[in-house]
């Protein structure tokens, strides 16, 4: 008597979305989010400037997500010592630095007309800048160490310690007096926005998350391919296309 696995449809859907369908899903998510952001109503006080929120907030959220993935991947590497977890940690940290920089840039563009300055020594801005430079240090550490095992171990420890900056950034607007508004979504009470704005913001978060997954997957594949090429150069083997493995070199026939 055959039994049906109830989780099979879920796994099939995940493989479809995160496999070959991921670029299409990410593109669709971006298109839907952009449409929702343009269709959302202007803010009562800030007017059309509020549309910067649909880039600034999702970029910050995605950066936090990326650093969380780096933390978890580093911990798993310390436990399992599998190279794939080190590649995941590195790729996620690179994406996190990109999205942190984007959040800072969009915050400056938003702050100029609302606060009158591009930058101020505000608690949220300063801690976010520190977060950016801490993870730049993480990436610099990876480049400074040649031995892959030593690099993975030191990076994993660094990534675990560095993640302490994430809650510091998030709670900075609650712990100190700041120009930056309190959290709109990640807060004990109900979200501070609603209606079309909330829908557009959630769709933007989904789109940025999909882009993050796509970036990390692509970066991991490139890293694996580079590792395969390095092995091929050392062993004289030919890398197999699409895989981080090598195949024996065929002798030329006379």
TrEMBL record:
One of its GO terms (biological process) is cytochrome complex assembly. It is found in: Membrane. Residues 27-180 form the Cytochrome c assembly protein domain. GO terms for cellular component: plasma membrane. Its main location: membrane. It comes from the Bacteria. GO terms for molecular function: heme binding; heme transmembrane transporter activity. This is Heme exporter protein C. The lineage of its organism: Bacteria, Bacillati, Actinomycetota, Actinomycetes, Pseudonocardiales.
